[in-house]
TrEMBL record:
Source organism (scientific name): Micromonas pusilla (strain CCMP1545) (Picoplanktonic green alga)
GO biological process: carotenoid biosynthetic process
Name of this protein: 15-cis-phytoene synthase
Region (Disordered): 32-96
Low complexity bias spans: 32-46
Gene3D superfamilies noted in UniProt: Farnesyl Diphosphate Synthase (1.10.600.10)
Keywords: Carotenoid biosynthesis, Transferase
EC number, as in UniProt: 2.5.1.32
Catalytic reaction annotation: 2 (2E,6E,10E)-geranylgeranyl diphosphate = 15-cis-phytoene + 2 diphosphate
Family classification: Belongs to the phytoene/squalene synthase family.
């Protein structure tokens, strides 16, 4: 259930991908940028494959999704295990506009089914041919990055078994590197072609051919646990959305984005957590709860970071339709004028709007709770801890009088530790159905 990592992967959008990955991500960005200047954009998926195209409307949701992901070219990726040769890895050249036009609920359902099937079968990807010492160093680097940039998440991981800790750190760092492509210091160099290259690199990881040692940590993880590639692909699509969509008109639109950038992490992490050894229920229930936790965490991130997102990235994730319902104009959010610059007083309209948003986020957290105790006993306490701490960010927003323009809501470290006994108590009873 994901997410101890779940949207924590999105919680610290600051520069630093270079320190995570060395020069690999910069190389991807620059190579794609050069390619886009030298030649026209690569041919995209044909119009007939797009969702909603008249020739495709009669297909099932899964058929349409497979069509939209159909490989349109081959991209050469060099593996760290094969330094003298090159290997072809299929990538999917999807434009950001195609992603925005797709049906997010169908995409989510398709990924959920893929993950359930993978976990049920227990299928693994090939082990990377990397020396153990190199892997140990890669996992340690993932540990360092996670502890530095995702403190709430990291606290939860420290309650896991060593093998599960390492696996979750590897997933977190891949998510962070992916997020940094569009929000990090090199974001201005990122093109759709760069994201195509990044997805090609992802395909290579799941083919047992990591491009660098940090990728090798993820490759090793997915060889040990039945993790499916689909949510990783969907997260890359979330980055494609960020290239072209700085506003969301309705909550349905926002939900689609939240799935791709955070719900996906729930699907990625669920196989690491595992189910209780006596669990005999429907795996879909547990995966749906993981998705809810991802959504709840991402909604919390969005509410916490309203000011930061609009000031530093010109992005407004809260639905514009709902702003208007409370009598608030988009321009007021852009100007941050809903908090008086001199007195710090918060506009009553904004307070009411925030109360509505927080109430919805808490409802989604409640939906996530339904699956936590279905997890394996060594995962329940970490997930409850992360869930409770993250939910308390909503309390912190309230304590700041709903000012999320000039103040950043957070849970103090001491308070986090004081919450651990209650989380431990909640984690004791197992749910087997």
């Amino acid at each position: 259930m994901a997410s101890t990592s779940v949207a924590s992967a999105q919680s610290a959008r600051v520069s630093g991908v270079c320190s995570v990955s060395g020069r690999g991500d910069i190389a991807v960005a620059r190579a794609a940028s050069r390619a886009s200047r030298r030649a026209p954009s690569p041919v995209s998926v044909s119009g007939a494959a797009l969702r909603g195209h008249k020739s495709n409307r009669g297909a099932s949701a899964n058929d349409r999704h497979r069509a939209s992901r159909a490989p349109s070219s081959r991209v050469v990726t060099r593996s760290i295990m094969e330094p003298e040769t090159t290997s072809a890895s299929t990538t999917f050249e999807r434009s950001p506009e195609q992603v925005v036009a797709s049906n997010g609920r169908e995409v989510e359902q398709f990924a959920l089914e893929c993950c359930v099937k993978r976990q049920t079968s227990g299928e693994r990807v090939p082990r990377p041919r990397v020396p153990e010492k190199m892997l140990d160093d890669a996992y340690e680097r993932c540990n360092e990055v996670t502890s530095e940039y995702a403190k709430t998440f990291y606290l939860g991981t420290k309650l896991m078994t060593p093998e599960k800790q390492r696996a979750i750190w590897a997933i977190y760092v891949w998510c962070r590197r992916t997020d940094e492509l569009v929000d990090g210091p090199n974001a201005s160099h990122i093109t759709p072609e760069a994201l195509n290259q990044w997805e090609a690199r992802l395909e290579a990881v799941f083919d047992g051919r990591p491009a660098d040692v940090i990728d090798a940590a993820l490759c090793d993880t997915v060889s040990r646990f039945p993790v499916d590639i689909q949510p990783f692909r969907d997260m890359v699509d979330g980055m494609r959305m960020d290239l072209v969509k700085p506003r969301y008109e309705t909550f349905d639109e926002l939900y689609e984005y939240c799935y791709r950038v955070a719900g996906t992490v729930g699907l990625m992490s669920m196989p690491i957590m595992g189910c209780d050894e006596n669990f005999e229920g429907d795996l879909r229930k547990v995966y749906k709860a993981a998705l809810s936790l991802g959504l709840a965490n991402q909604l919390t991130n969005i509410l916490r970071d309203v000011g930061e997102d609009v000031i530093t990235r010109n992005r407004i994730y809260i639905p514009l339709e709902e702003l208007r319902r409370f009598g608030i104009e988009e321009s007021e959010v852009i100007k941050c004028s809903l908090v008086d610059a001199e007195t710090g007083a918060v506009d009553p309209r904004w307070k009411e709007f925030m109360k509505f948003q927080i109430a919805r986020a808490r409802e989604v957290f409640a939906e996530a709770e339904a699956g936590v105790n279905c997890l394996h006993k060594d995962a329940r306490w970490p997930v409850w801890s992360a869930l409770d701490v993250y939910r308390n960010i909503l309390d912190a927003i309230e304590a700041n009088d709903y000012d999320n323009f000039t103040q950043r809501a957070y849970v103090p470290k001491l308070q986090k530790f004081l919450m651990l006994p209650a989380a431990y108590s909640k984690a004791q009873p197992a749910m087997t159905m």
